[in-house]
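User: Hi! I'm working on a homework problem where we have to compare a predicted structure to a textbook description. Could you give me the structure for the chain below?
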Amino acid sequence: MRVACSKKLHVITADDFVIRTAGYWALRAAKAAGSDEHAQRWLGWPLDMVREYESSHGKLLDRELDDESEAPSPGWFALINRHDRRIMGALVIAVSQLNRVEIGGYLAPQYRGRGFGAQLFTLGSVLAHTHLGLPEIYAGTETGNIACRQSLLKAGFTYTDGPAQHTLPNGRMVDSVWFKSAVAREATCRPRWLWRRWARVR
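Assistant: Happy to help. Predicted structure tokens:
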């Protein structure tokens, strides 16, 4: 596994896939990968955001992703198949309203149910701890999302305290369960968009 970065692009390369800061097309493909009905059961994005990708969903999932353009949303990372350069899923790292760094992620339809969720969150942990130097990251999911819960546990997360309910972006309230990963690391990269916000809430 190799980790590299420039000023605005962070990349982790494994045997079969790479996770990197999402440039313009990678971000669009990543959002298309989560815009289907099954994913939205758990993600709950606003309806206008979901509709934005209805007509281009298939084309974006099949697009070869070679761009390394400046990230329009620096907290978004694309999981990309190294062999065909198509989108596999997405990871998001942000400082939440609970004043802690949270990580979230999902897979494109064709990669669900194949064990890639644990690998997605494992790479996310490497990115957050080893590269960005964050000692603690949190993840929450709906109580009934067994696949996500199992993926987080396999990736080394453990159960922790958190709000019993969570409001999704579309306003739907769900019962939630929370996880934590804690690893003391020296940061190899400190992106301003994350560390400035995180420092203000410590």
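For your comparison, note the following. Strands lie at 2-5, 10-13, 17-21, 76-81, 87-95, 101-107, 136-142, 158-160, 165-167, 173-182. The chain has seven helices and ten strands. Good luck with the assignment!
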